[in-house]
Amino acid sequence: MARYRKLDPRFWRDEKIRTLDPVDKLIAVYAFSGQSNRIGCFTFSPGMAAEDTAISRPTFAERFRSLCERLNWRWDELAAVVYLPTWWKYNQPENPNVLVGNLRDLDDVPHSPLVLEFCDNVIYLDPRFHQTFRETLAKRYPKRSAVQEQEQKHKQESTLSSSPARHHIGAGNDVLGQNGFLGKAHEVLDYLNRQTGHAYRPVSANLDLIVTRLRSGVSAESCKTVIDRKVSQWSRDPKMAKYLRPATLFNRTKFEQYLGELGSARLVDEHENGRPPDTDENPYASWPQLFDCAQCGEAHETQTCPKGGSQS
Question: Do residue 18 and residue 150 come from a single domain?
Fold first, then answer.
């Protein structure tokens, strides 16, 4: 896969692009260059996009949803796939051999109804390449036939919007409760709320960062361990307690630091069967027991207050 993306000057002269404000133009350029592949149908993480563009997650979610509607982009949140129907308009392959190479990127795209749309859309592709396009898809991707993709579409139709843009940012709990990264992210967010007493809603602004961490290979159990560690460290400190929130805990840079602090905490989820871990595998077993001090109001590792007095 290429390591860079080209942006056709005609992109800026497109009548729809010209009506966008600077923030929307940034998001549009990012969609064509930030996480894209060579065919315009690719896995997309709004959380990562918000981090890369330095746009707040709520703002990015709202703007991206608006762009999907205005530019007729397709967004399958369940599969985390974006499809830009006008991709070939601005990224025309130079020759049939280049097209064949570009189509290899389809190997990395999860199953989604949007793949069927991609395979059926040759509106902006040079007519000289239509035959190569169809023959390559038929030879390399027989499993992604129209029949099978249609079956997949029927399975997901309850979670895909009926609107042309098929956007799903901020979708309801019926989507978030499905198996996969979103389901795990929902589980982690619920755990954070239980441990902190907060009530963070299962919306894109709170879930996207968790999904990004899970996609990087971190398990849900490791996310919960980080939460427990930070609750233990920060909950009694008014200055730090406010940072027990998704925006801080699951920030890309900060989370890796917090995860590194765990030392032996495992990235692989070994307890998905619901059984509590054995004592010698429990990451909390080595943590000191803390006692609330009735005299000074702080927590200490001994029942005797270092400042004098006894614990309650």
Answer: yes
Closest residue by Cα to residue 245 from 203, 189, 297: 189
Co-location of 152 and 27 in the same domain: yes
In a domain, 116, yes or no: yes
Cβ pair 65, 146 in contact under 8 A? no
Residues 148 and 248 placed together within one structural domain of the fold: no
Residue 143: is it exposed, middle or buried by C-beta count within 10 angstroms (0-12/13-18/19+)? exposed
Looking at the structure, tell me whether residues 244 and 148 fall in a common domain: no
Which pLDDT value is given to residue 296?
64
pTM of the model: 0.49
Number of domains within the chain = 2
147 plus 51 within the same structural domain: yes
Return phi, psi of residue 300, to 5°.
-130, 160
108-122 pLDDT, tens per residue?
A: 888 888 888 899 889
Is 284 a domain residue?
no
Kindly state whether residues 132 and 233 are assigned to the same domain: no
Helix (H, G, I), strand (E, B) or coil at 42: strand
Same domain, 201 and 151: no
Dihedral, CA of residue 30, residue 129, residue 74 and residue 13, to nearest 10: 50
Q: Which residues contact 205 (CB under 8 A, 6 or more apart)?
A: 56, 57, 58, 61, 246
Token code pair at residue 153: 């579409």
Residues in the chain: 312
Residue with tokens 């065919």: 39
pLDDT in tens, 229-252: 999 999 999 889 999 999 999 988
